[in-house]
Write a structure and sequence with these properties.
The chain is built from seven helices and two strands; from the N terminus they run H-H-H-H-E-E-H-H-H. By secondary structure, the chain is mostly helical. The longest helix is centred in the middle third of the chain and has 22 residues.
């Protein structure tokens, strides 16, 4: 599966899961130890904007990043996610973006690597949200592809607080979403 196609499928699944999140679930705990559903939604909305700006401009100014991360989750979080992901997808569909160097808070990398990281991260957070809100991941082929991508991009340097915890044990025959979450360091 091509990375652009995989990212679109991750976005489609994220939209489906986020559409299923109700306001009374915003304070539910997610598999991310420090985040409630509200915090995780804020992370994916602000993250989409951050990655879009980096793809458009090559970097994101510290003051803009601070504003994005410091703003509250909009009441209409579903539309906010849709706008954020649409902007990011448009930016990453631009010609030459995979070769463009991008300066992000966690390092400089080419657009192709950023796209891979976004794809894995959003797939993982979609599984987090599904688990926290009693939903399931419908696209298991996408989940398997995202897990394979994660195994190729998440090395030991990403295994630290604020990023990905150490991989957790899970049965080889566990559902794809469980294996994805365990790889990202979540207890399943």
């Amino acid at each position: 599966m091509e990375n652009a196609e995989l990212l679109q499928r991750v976005v489609d699944e994220a939209n489906r899961v986020i559409d299923g999140v109700t306001p009374d679930q915003l304070d539910a705990q997610t598999p991310c130890d420090d985040w409630k559903v509200r915090d995780l939604l804020h992370h994916v909305v602000a993250g989409g904007q951050m990655f879009a700006i980096a793809a458009e401009d090559g970097s994101i100014p510290d003051d803009v990043l601070g504003q994005l991360m410091g703003s509250p989750l909009p009441d209409d979080y579903k539309s906010a996610f849709q706008a954020s992901v649409t902007r990011a997808k448009t930016a990453f569909d631009a010609p030459g973006v995979d070769e463009k160097m991008m300066k992000l808070p966690f390092g400089d990398m080419p657009g192709a690597a950023v796209r891979s990281l976004i794809t894995f991260d959003l797939a993982t957070h979609t599984a987090d949200l599904a688990r926290a809100t009693g939903q399931s991941i419908a696209d298991t082929e996408m989940t398997e592809a995202a897990l394979a991508l994660g195994r190729s991009v998440v090395g030991p340097e990403w295994r630290r607080p604020g990023s990905f915890a150490p991989e957790r044990p899970v049965a080889d025959d566990a559902p794809a979403a469980d294996r994805l979450l365990a790889f990202a360091g979540r207890s399943v």
